[in-house]
Model the fold of this input.
Amino acid sequence: LALAPSWRHTQAVVLTLCALAGALYAVTLGSAVASGAVPQGAGFDSLEGVVRLFSSRAVVFSGWVHYTCCDLLSGLYIVRDAQVHGIPHLIVAVFVLPLTLVAAPVGVLIYLAIKLLWPSGSAAAAAADNNKKNLEAKSK
Done:
């Protein structure tokens, strides 16, 4: 995403990685549940249940895979949306994507703030229209 945002296979690579992460998540979480690695009282119905859930190393690994997949999908959204709206990739790659990798909600928030503040004058609008047409042509 940072190094080849306009490559025609970037989206397919990211989505393939997310599909693999989804399969790994299902297998590791299923294995943790089947093997009894999930502690008694663990779950998502309360903060205490989540704390108990993440006291299991197997569940923490599954959670890490889950977060990584969500980070990648957030990054994909940011890169594609920035291209459509004419936001320079250097800004996205230097300031937004690293933050998204470690704290996706904050990265998305920062990106949305940049997008909101980015000038929407005629030059930016023309660049955004050109980017949108290029993306549409590449996806065909």
Observations:
- The chain has a mean pLDDT of 87.
- Residues 57-84 form the longest helix (28 residues).
- The CA atoms of residues 86 and 128 lie 4 Å apart.
- DSSP finds six helices and no strands in the chain.
